[in-house]
Amino acid sequence: MGFYHRHILPTFLDKMMTGNPALDDLRKEALATARGRVLEIGFGTGLNAPHYPREVERVIGLDSNPGVERLARKRIGAASVPIEFQLGSGDRLPFGDHSFDTVVTTFVLCSVSDAADALIEIRRVLAPGGRYLVLEHGLADDAKVQTWQRRLNPVNSAVLGGCRLDRPMSELVTRAGFHFVTMKHFYMAETPRFAGFMTLGCATPA
């Protein structure tokens, strides 16, 4: 991992993703049904930490970039639920089968090297009756927007740590053996349409 990705990108993404009340509301909505033992993949700088409900027993915040931990520590310390930061990859989770009641990804599946493998791993570590909470941006439902997403992918990926604009998020989740209990698609307000097509939902293993 190079200097840019470890030292500059975490601060850049943190500033880009903070200070937006609408985004905070989406995080709160996405996490509202989190329960018990929680795994958050792509914990980043801890932007979800303030939004976990009291029904959560403990959160393992997993991230592959050691550069985010410094920024995450303040939010971990202020959280109302216990959070433990760990380094690790989403497509090779270092946990046993059925270890968690809830798994969370927010703005993560766009940048993992293999989203399909990550989703298979998520299904593996979920306990029976567990839930997978999803808040992701991805491939739009408009052909013109899709064209721009594919044109901009190389630059977007290079600047934002491998983030792809054109992954069909709900399709990937269902293809991995999940069933959406709740799910909605929408364009996020005040966000360019190529980056703002959202999938928000709760899925369980089918």
Quickly list its features.
206 residues, 34% helix, 7 strands, Rossmann fold, seven-stranded mixed beta sheet, alpha/beta, 6 helices, single chain
Name the assembly state: single chain
Structural class, judged by helices and strands?
alpha/beta
- Give the averaged pLDDT, no decimals: 96
Question: Reading side by side through the largest sheet, how are the strands ordered?
Answer: 3-2-1-4-5-7-6
Please state the second-level CATH architecture.
3-Layer(aba) Sandwich
Number of domains: 1
Which topology does CATH recognise?
A: Rossmann fold
Rg result? 16 Å
Please give the number of β-strands: 7
* N-to-C CA distance: 36 Å
Shape, per Cα inertia axes: globular
Q: Tell me the fraction of residues in β-strands, as a range.
A: 25-35%
What is the CATH domain class? Answer: Alpha Beta
- Give the CATH H-level superfamily: Vaccinia Virus protein VP39
- Topology pattern, helix = H, strand = E: HHEEHEEHEHHEE
Query: Share of helix among residues?
Result: 25-40%
Task: State the helix count.
Answer: 6
Major sheet attributes = 7 strands, mixed
Query: Could you list the spans in which at least 5 consecutive residues all have pLDDT below 50?
Result: none
